[in-house]
Amino acid sequence: MLLSATDLRRTVADRVVWSGVELTVNPGDRVAVTGPSGSGKTLLLRTLAGLDPLETGEITLAGRPQAQWAMPAYRSQVMYLPQRPFVGTGTVLDELKRPFQFKVHAARRFEQDAAARWLTALHRPDLLQLNASTLSGGEGQVLALVRALLLNPALLLLDEATASLDPETTHAAEALLAQWLIDGPERAVIWVTHDPVQRARVATRLLPVVPG
Ligand SMILES: Nc1ncnc2c1ncn2[C@@H]1O[C@H](COP(=O)(O)OP(=O)(O)OP(=O)(O)O)[C@@H](O)[C@H]1O
């Protein structure tokens, strides 16, 4: 088992957004979190990623409770991709390299060939030399996806991470992620998408978020 979550609850301003959430993620899993707007899908992904505190229950990664992990190391394994990612102000190449300067990624090595290959797979080999601060929303999502893949997490949490992409690039991103899972059978992906057709394409299992 890659990750397990038991009896999670989240409150916001004394309102219980969700409770009793249970989840098991095994290597190779492709899970889609479903629920209407405001039901707490983003809050759930943020909790799984260790970006928001655990109110109740337990999350374990590779058999170790979240509390026993150094959080930077945990978050490098369970990586959250928001809909509007931080892109930075350097060139796209600079921004793809930047996380490798952090101590938590010291054992990882920036692979420019992989970056170029994945940008080409996403139809944007030209992106490397552009300035990240001027990227469109979709281009920013391309940067964020490639940056995340380069860091090689075990579990990728995609929060509407293709919502700003055109249909062709969306399909290319789905294919890239499918191949990424094949290349690393120990990996898994959790998607939040409002598009039921995309959900059917990318997920093998649903996790409904039920309000309250
Ligand atoms: N920092 C915050 N402070 C107060 N309320 C918040 C905060 N973050 C989220 N909420 C509230 O928690 C609820 C769940 O938000 P969340 O963003 O997780 O929903 P969602 O299911 O991802 O929605 P959508 O599908 O629209 O993206 C919403 O009612 C939202 O207003």
TrEMBL record:
<dbReference type="GO" id="GO:0016887">
    <property type="term" value="F:ATP hydrolysis activity"/>
</dbReference>
<keyword id="KW-0067">ATP-binding</keyword>
<dbReference type="InterPro" id="IPR003439">
    <property type="entry name" value="ABC_transporter-like_ATP-bd"/>
</dbReference>
<protein>
    <submittedName>
        <fullName>ABC transporter ATP-binding protein</fullName>
    </submittedName>
</protein>
<dbReference type="InterPro" id="IPR003593">
    <property type="entry name" value="AAA+_ATPase"/>
</dbReference>
<feature type="domain" description="ABC transporter">
    <location>
        <begin position="3"/>
        <end position="212"/>
    </location>
</feature>
<dbReference type="Pfam" id="PF00005">
    <property type="entry name" value="ABC_tran"/>
</dbReference>
<dbReference type="InterPro" id="IPR027417">
    <property type="entry name" value="P-loop_NTPase"/>
</dbReference>
<dbReference type="GO" id="GO:0005524">
    <property type="term" value="F:ATP binding"/>
</dbReference>
<keyword id="KW-0547">Nucleotide-binding</keyword>
